[in-house]
User: Fold this.
Amino acid sequence: MKKFFVAFVIVLGLSFSYGQQFKYDARLGIGGSILGTASHLLINRQYVDYSITPELEAHFRIFASKTVAVGLALGYQRFAISGNIDTLQGTVSASKWNLSLSTTLFYMQKGNFNLYTGASAGLSIWHYRASANFDYYIENYLGPFSSIVSKYIPREGSFTNALPSFQITLFGAGLYPVKNLGLYGELAIGSPYWFNMGLSYRFNSSRVRKVIGY
Assistant:
């Protein structure tokens, strides 16, 4: 029994060190934002057409210690809504780029499996574009002046603004069926997403170390 216990401790220790031999990981994920999910649930397709992409993310992390990783994430999502109200046709589209700094705390690492939590803070850059067709109203209500007035009524416009983003990862799990390549999934609150899943590639690289100095 004693030999079995000693062997178990050794295997567990080797498993832990196996999970710690990589210095970096790069992730590609797909998920859903609160705004995107709410839009899917609330928009009535009978009156409008819409296209909402999933939240796409690329994330690079550096292991600062055995249990802590810091990283940089870049996310993208696009929204487009169009519809008709009587004879007025309009379209609104928005694209969101999110850049965040992240911290991840691994509270369980055993071989090819890990559990973690974390937080991130960054900036969401939104670009909006809207267009509308007022020709029917201009022609019917302004008569001979319609050709003059229509030149001064904009049919489309755009603007950009930036908003802070904060997120807490409530629960994350990673599984590596092969040595370097794995799968992960997360549940979170905040922005840019509330759930995310994808592929994770962990590695060591002397070239990356030279570039970032770590």
